[in-house]
Structure formats: structure tokens, C-alpha cells
């Protein structure tokens, strides 16, 4: 199956999001063309790419340059209520952002398999 090349911004179904200029610079080298403004879109997948500064560290493993970190959830820290002396999240992760669609969940499961890791 060959992917067709998008001709307009409306033809994209995947978005790549970078938080830092350093990350944007690295990712931007893979593109042939840029669109300066958002358009109407039919996005199905958004990839948050970066330097993994928030990856949890463990004693038995480490994240190295070139490693890929895949998460099943996104924690939205700003979806909370501020009270005097405390900050409380409104509810669970699932309630805040919703559950990913079936295609995304299936893709995440494939990445967990030995074959998907290759």
C-alpha cells in the first residue's frame, strides 16, 4: 500500500507537534513543504515529538539518543481547579482527554509486540 502525497493542508491526517525550537528544527528536516496557517483538517493522529525531558527514569533502564518512547495516555496538567493552597485535577485521565480511537489503540498494541518493536 503506497501513501499518496498530500497536496493541500486539508489532505493531512497526521500532525506532528513539537514543544521546543530544538525539537522543531530536528523534525523539520524531513519535510519537503510547509504550510504557514492552520486549515480545515481531518486529523486522525497527532504525534508529540521531542527530547523526552519528562520521561520517567528507572534504575534498570535508561532512555538514550535515538530511543522511541510511546505512551498510551497524555496527562493534561492544566485541566484542573485551583483552590486556595491546592491544585486538584478535575477527574481521571480518561475523563479529561477521552479514550483514543480504535485505530490508535490497535497501533499501540502492535508496538508492544516483539514484531512491532523490530
Automatic annotation (TrEMBL):
A single GO BP: nucleoside metabolic process
Top-level taxon in the UniProt lineage: Eukaryota
Gene Ontology terms, MF aspect: catalytic activity
Family annotation (InterPro entries): NLR-like, Nucleoside_phosphorylase_sf
UniProt-recorded name of the protein: Nucleoside phosphorylase domain-containing protein
UniProt organism field: Tolypocladium ophioglossoides (strain CBS 100239) (Snaketongue truffleclub)
Amino acid at each position: 500500500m503506497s501513501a499518496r502525497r498530500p497536496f493541500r493542508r486539508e489532505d493531512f491526517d497526521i500532525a506532528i507537534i513539537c514543544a521546543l525550537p530544538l525539537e522543531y528544527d530536528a523534525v523539520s528536516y524531513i519535510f519537503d513543504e510547509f504550510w504557514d496557517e492552520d486549515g480545515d483538517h481531518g486529523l486522525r493522529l497527532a504525534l508529540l515529538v521531542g527530547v523526552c525531558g519528562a520521561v520517567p527514569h528507572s534504575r534498570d533502564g535508561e532512555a538514550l539518543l535515538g530511543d522511541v518512547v510511546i505512551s498510551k495516555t497524555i496527562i493534561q496538567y492544566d485541566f484542573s481547579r485551583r483552590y486556595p493552597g491546592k491544585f486538584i485535577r478535575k477527574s481521571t485521565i480518561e475523563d479529561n482527554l477521552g479514550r483514543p480511537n480504535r485505530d490508535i489503540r490497535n497501533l499501540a498494541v502492535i508496538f508492544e509486540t516483539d514484531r512491532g518493536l523490530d
